[in-house]
Specification:
The protein is mainly alpha-helical. The protein has one domain. It is built from nine helices and no strands. Helix 2 packs antiparallel against helix 6 and helix 2 runs parallel beside helix 7. It is globular, with a radius of gyration of 20 Å. The N and C termini lie far apart (57 Å).
Amino acid sequence: MNYFLNGFELIFDSFTKDPGVWWFLAPILILWLATQIYFGEYKREKISFAGAFSAGISFLWINISTLRILFIIKPDDILIRIYILVIFLFYGLFIIYNAYSHKVSREFVGTLASPNTLYPLSITIILFGQGHLKISLWAIFDLLIILGFIWLFFLFLKKNFLGLGGDIEAVKAGELPKELEEDKIKALK
């Protein structure tokens, strides 16, 4: 249990130890929130090939920038951090290639490049790659718990507060959202 709590302590220290980390984290968190609001309002919208392509390039750039900082600070465990970053770098290249070539479905590329995938990975890359967070299984486990709670918060927000009746496009098209349609049918009986 102590290691579990130490993981949370390491994570929260990584946010306060070097305020410069917020220069990288703030835009990612703001974009994550903005995309959750957007896709919560417009539930029929999906990530396009062009959107996945640009998200892949941004993700790749976060990796490259983090590698640059890693080579400047040169922590003791630099090799494992480089290994992790190179894996994510190839993931970014994989997204870019598939979005540009259209060799796989838009849904597949959209899943790979979705905000719920890339933004948590970007946060992880920045914290581990720039040496703000010590690499340990407990830190990774606790970070996954925190990101999971953020994801659940966004899910709750999208389900309960965003989109008129859950589907703003349907309302704009003159259709009733499913929940309101069921209420209308019950009222007419």
